[in-house]
């Protein structure tokens, strides 16, 4: 599959695919004319890379985890890395839930404030 096809199907730019290749996250074969060709599985792989990036993993961390991800076999070191990333993501989720709950409070507060007879709690910006 050509680079443009992978980019379109995975929902990323061609530039992103080239970057993944530079970072050692994605491999392509080259035609005699120098065009990149990827296996069909590259689309799913790129989507996984995108998810890991969105979760806050760096390209270096993803590269460290490649052998484990590709083989489905973990070493004690890779298990430690995976567990650490999972714990970090859990902390992010907790923070996002807290932020969402505060927004819910603010939404409720402003809805009450729009009725003339209600008093509401306000937040002062430092």
TrEMBL record:
Residues 1-68 form the HTH merR-type domain. Keywords: DNA-binding. It comes from the Bacteria. Pfam families: MerR_1. One of its GO terms (molecular function) is DNA-binding transcription factor activity. CDD domains: HTH_MerR-like_sg3. This is MerR family transcriptional regulator. It comes from Phytohabitans flavus.
């Amino acid at each position: 599959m050509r680079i443009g096809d992978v980019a379109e199907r995975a929902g990323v730019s061609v530039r992103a695919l080239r970057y993944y290749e530079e970072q050692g996250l994605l491999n392509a074969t080259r035609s005699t004319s120098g065009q990149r060709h990827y296996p069909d599985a590259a689309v799913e792989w790129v989507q996984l890379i995108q998810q890991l990036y969105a979760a806050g993993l760096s390209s270096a961390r993803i590269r460290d985890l490649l052998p484990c991800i590709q083989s489905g076999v973990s070493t004690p070191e890779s298990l430690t890395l995976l567990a650490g990333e999972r714990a970090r993501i859990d902390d992010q989720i907790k923070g996002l839930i807290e932020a969402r709950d505060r927004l819910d409070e603010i939404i409720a507060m402003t809805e009450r404030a729009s009725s003339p007879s209600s008093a509401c709690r306000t937040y002062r910006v430092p």
